[in-house]
Design goal:
With 361 residues, the protein is α/β, with parallel strands linked by helices. The protein contains 12 helices and 13 strands.
Length: 361
């Protein structure tokens, strides 16, 4: 017998992040509780009867046994599998998940995170086989970006299976308190320091910004390793170094969105970037790269931000324009918030998820 309140069993090696815990709490308020079956438990996430974390044992056979016990005891409404599973033992466990789900007659909903589809050609055999196994056993496949669907079809990942693919992009909460004004000329980059996001372009652009606005400050937040940080530091000089602050990845970095005047993301992929959405929700106009063909779905050039060539000169030009023209900056900031409120509102996203969940019944 299932519990009176239906349960979602979430699978993932690293997906137990606070952002997903927050979503689980909201969904719980609307009728579904969540069990995270994950490698690492988030110690500072508020646990209650509606949002629970079960840690995966290191031993693979204990892993499978615990999954069986969780499945048997919770009898979930469905299994929600996040494809961030890169460890070999998780990949090898895919067929166990599918096999047991069939035995218990529990539907699977797959959630594609990005890299598992984007870098398909680079994956080794076990990873490809595992992802195919889980995707082909799914009732629905949730994708965040349009290219996910295109790549799934291009690489024939589903074979001859006809499975419903639903695009539900990232979204962010819309907070009531809001002030587009800012005191300091703070330029913010808040993302991982991956090469395709070109953080070095941000540092080089800031050198040019400093020549026009000597009082400007740059915050580079989101690096994961010292190697990432050292690579970026190589691109700065002694003159601009004192005006650059480096902050490692931390969930608390989100408060920086309320301090920054502009947000920089000269990346090759920008569509539904979480930090971009959160910055815009706080009324921070962005300057993004213009390579991503779907970027214009979020940033309309000159209306709620700027899309520019991924060069220090182009990024610096629009940054200086916004920092020197406060009326323009505030106008674009308000438009940015309006865009996210209407199209990337987490309340709308959760409602879409609930409709999908109910279709499984």
């Amino acid at each position: 017998m299932r519990d009176a309140q239906p349960t979602i069993l979430v699978l993932g090696s690293t997906i137990s992040k606070l952002v997903w815990i927050d979503q689980a709490k909201k969904i719980a308020d609307l009728g579904f509780r969540t069990i995270f079956f994950v490698r690492k438990k988030v110690s500072d996430s508020p646990e209650n009867s509606r949002v629970k974390t079960v840690e995966v044992p290191n031993n693979i056979f204990c892993h499978w046994l615990r999954f069986f016990k969780v499945l048997k005891s919770s009898r979930p409404h469905h299994i929600e599998a996040f494809h961030d599973l890169y460890r070999w033992d998780f990949l090898l466990s895919y067929w166990i998940y599918v096999w047991l789900a069939k035995i218990f007659r529990i539907p699977i909903v797959s959630v594609c995170m990005g890299g598992e589809i984007l870098y398909w050609e680079k994956h080794f055999f076990l990873k490809k086989w595992s992802i195919k196994t889980l995707l082909r056993a799914s009732k629905h496949i949730i994708v965040k970006e349009p290219y996910h669907r295109e790549y799934i079809e291009k690489y024939k990942i589903l074979g001859k299976k006809k499975i419903n693919i639903v695009e539900i992009p990232n979204a962010t909460d819309i907070r009531e308190e809001f002030d587009v004004k800012r005191k300091e000329d703070i330029v913010l980059y808040l993302n991982s320091f991956k090469t395709w996001r070109h953080p070095e372009v941000v540092v080089q652009a800031f050198k040019l910004i400093k020549k026009k606005l000597p009082g400007a400050l740059l915050i580079m937040a989101g690096y994961r390793t010292e190697e990432e940080l050292e690579r970026i530091r190589e691109s700065m000089d002694s003159e601009t170094a004192p005006s650059i602050r480096y902050i490692p990845y931390d969930f608390e970095n989100r408060k920086l969105f309320s301090q920054a005047k502009i947000f920089l993301l000269p990346a090759e992929l920008v569509y539904v970037n979480n930090s971009l959405l959160e910055a815009m929700e706080r009324g921070v106009p962005p300057v993004i790269g213009n390579v991503d063909p779907y970027g214009e779905k979020i940033v309309r050039n000159g209306e709620n931000g700027f899309a520019v060539d991924i060069t220090p000169e182009a990024v610096a030009e629009k940054s200086v324009l916004l920092l020197e023209n406060e009326d323009l900056r505030q106008k674009l900031g308000r438009n940015a918030r309006d865009t996210v409120t209407r199209h990337f509102n987490n309340r709308i996203r959760i409602q879409s998820l609930l409709e999908l969940y109910k279709s499984l019944e």
